[in-house]
Design goal:
There is one protein chain. Helix content is about 80%, strand content about 0%. It has 6 helices and no strands. It has helices at about 5-10, 10-30, 35-40, 45-70, 75-100, 105-130. Helix 2 (about 10-30) packs antiparallel against helix 6 (about 105-130). The longest helix has 26 residues, at about 75-100. The protein is elongated.
């Protein structure tokens, strides 16, 4: 019997989402001068709040992929897999919002956006494989 954690670790979409989360955390750390998540959340600075949103949305993507993989019904699995696009788009929008603020490190945010474009392609192929 296979366990979900073993299958999940091999899933390209899951691996890429973990990489996106790690990159989002590093970008937020650079932009906010290495502040922790609680301080970013409580900060009155728009940049800190935007960086916090970026990291939290990237963090939320990972368990959603795990939720998709644990579904038994093919139709519910497909429905949840399609909904992942919403979370990917939210992270992308967070990047755009950060780029529109006065921050240093816009090139790092652009790198994250490029990785999100790659994640979109992986997601598209993943959804097609479920059809």
């Amino acid at each position: 019997m296979k366990t979900y954690s073993q299958d999940l670790g091999k899933l390209v979409l899951y691996q890429k989402s973990l990489a996106i989360f790690e990159l989002a955390r590093r970008v937020a750390s650079y932009i906010t001068d290495d502040k922790d998540m609680i301080f970013m959340y409580r900060s009155g600075s728009k940049t800190d709040n935007y960086a916090d949103n970026l990291v939290m949305n990237a963090y939320r993507l990972v368990p959603k992929i795990a939720e998709v993989e644990t579904q038994n019904s093919k139709s519910s699995k497909l429905k949840l897999a399609k909904s992942l696009r919403y979370f990917i788009d939210r992270i992308y929008q967070d990047c755009v919002t950060l780029e529109n603020t006065k921050i240093q490190g816009k090139d790092f945010v652009q790198l994250l956006r490029d990785e999100l474009k790659h994640l979109r392609k992986i997601h598209k192929n993943y959804v097609k494989s479920l059809l």
